[in-house]
C-alpha cells in the first residue's frame, strides 16, 4: 500500500504543495519597508506584525496539525487550503495596519497544511526511505521559503505590494484543484480517540521523549537565527547599499544551495546519526553569522553567509524531522506539531528581537543576538540533552 501511494510523482506533488502554501508566511519579509511606508508605521511595528504571522503559524501547528493523527489527513489538508485562500485575500484588501495585522495572524494559522503533508509523507514512505522522502518534501518547503521572498520582493518593486497576496490566493486555489484529483487517500479509516483527548496527550509526549524536546529546542534556535537575518536584511540593505525589496528578494535565491542539498542531507540522516547532522547545522549557522559580522559590509560576504546559513538551517530541519518521525508513526502529526511549534516560536521571536536589536545596536547587534542564541543551541545539543540521556539510562538500569 505505502509503495503504491507514494511514488516519485506523488512525492514531487507533496513537495510542490508544501512550497506554494508555506510561501504565505514569508511574503512579508522583503516588503516590510514598503508596508511600513504604506501604513506610515515604524519598523518596530512591522516587526511585531511579522511576528504575528510566525506566532499564528506556531499555534496552528500546536492546535491544528495534531488533528492529522485523528482525522482524515487528505480532507484536513484540503480544508486548510480553503482557509489559506481566504486569509491571503484579506491581506490583499486590508485598508489599514490593524486589518493587515489580523490577516497576517490568520495567514500564519491557516498555512499549516505543509506540516500535515510532511508527516503524511513520512507515514506513507517505506521505512528505509523515510529520510530521503522527507528530504525531498522538505526541499519543497525550502523552495517555498526562498521563492516567497524573491517573488514578494521583485513583485513589490513593480506592482503594489498587495498584489503579492492576490497572486498567492490564486496559486493556492489552483493547487487545491490539483490536489483534489491527485493527493492519495488516507489509508487509515478509523481513529481511536477524539480531538480533546488527543490534545491532552501532547504534553505527555513531550515529557516522555527527551529527543522530541531536544528537536524542538534545536528547531527554535536554528530557525530563530535564520529569521533574525531575514527580518532585518531589507533594512540593512537600505542602510548599507541603498537597496530595497527587489534586491532583498533576489538575495533569497542564494538559498537554492539548501534546496539542492536537502535530498542529500536526507540520505545522510538515514546513514549517519541525526545528532551528527544537527551538530553540523549549528556549526554552519555560527560560521554564517561570523561571516555576516566581519564581512557583511561587502556583498560577497553577504552572499557566502546566506548560502552557509541556509545550509545550516536545512541540516537541522531534515535531521530533526528524520529522528522524530521514527519514534511512533501513530503519533507522527503530534511529534511534528511539537517540533514545528518550537521551530516557529523561534522564528517569531527571531523576527521581533532582530528588529529591536537592529533599531538599538545596528548590524553588529543583530549578529551578536544570533551568536548568543546559537550558544544556547550548542549547550542544549552537546551538554544538556546528552547528560539527560545518560541519566535516563542510569535510572533504567
From TrEMBL:
Keyword set includes RNA-binding: no
Domain Major facilitator superfamily (MFS) profile span(s) in chain numbering: 10-389
Subcellular location as annotated: Cell membrane
Single GO MF annotation: transmembrane transporter activity
InterPro entries: MFS, MFS_dom, MFS_trans_sf
Transmembrane intervals: 12-29, 41-64, 76-94, 100-121, 133-151, 163-180, 217-237, 249-269, 276-292, 298-316, 337-357, 363-382
Keyword set, alphabetical order: Membrane, Transmembrane, Transmembrane helix, Transport
SUPFAM superfamilies linked: MFS general substrate transporter
One Gene Ontology cellular component: plasma membrane
Source taxonomy: Bacteria, Bacillati, Bacillota, Bacilli, Lactobacillales
The protein's name: Transport protein
Chief location: membrane
A Pfam family hit: MFS_1
Source organism of this protein record: Lactiplantibacillus fabifermentans DSM 21115
Domain of life of the source: Bacteria
Membrane topology classification: Multi-pass membrane protein
